[in-house]
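Fold sample X.
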Amino acid sequence: QVQLVESGGGSVQPGGSLRLSCAASATIFRLYAMGWYRQPPGNQRELVASITSGGSTNYADSVKGRFAISRDNAKNTVYLQMNSLKPEDTAVYYCNAGGILWGQGTQVTVSS
């Protein structure tokens, strides 16, 4: 049973923007903090940003000031707005709920 459904990945030039979305069931969304992780080619998965049910956010230093995580409680959806994208942001991005549930991943490629 798919519980986290991601969308919004793609290819973009350096300096461009993308917005990722992750839809969850109402129960999951209500109970868990939500986060975005990424796994660059040949590297380990790393936390990009997280947001609690109360709206408190946390970001990796590498994305502070460029990425913004938000959640829409009415739509049970968490977003990752990514601006000023760099080639080193290229990775598979995964939605996470409570540190235990994972989405299928969506590819983000930043290249000229």
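Fold sample Y, listed below.
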Amino acid sequence: QVRLAESGGSLVQPGGSLRPSCIASGINFRLHTWNWYRHAPGTDRDFAATIDSSGHKNYSDSVKGRFIVSRDNVRNTLYLQANSLKPEDTAVYYCQTKYRGREVWGRGIRVTVSS
């Protein structure tokens, strides 16, 4: 069974940084594309960042230039280095992938950006 477990959520001041991570089990991590999504209060869950099996990355316009997605294929771990955080980055952050044609999601972690 594929399991995704995020960690690293916190309360942080505007301008601060966090590095959420997502550990995967039950899946050949290195073969998959991995994504970060986020769900802010009162909005739909939105794409934030992606990294494919070759290490190619892409970002939403809202996080481009501030967030960096990375992966460790030895530790089966996905990371999101979130810098220059803004109050509008407040959301629940999820890691996600596709496995055998189905989407697999973690349970999410809460990131709150507030002074």
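Sample Y note: The CA atoms of residues 94 and 113 lie 17 Å apart.
Also: The two ends are 40 Å apart (CA to CA).
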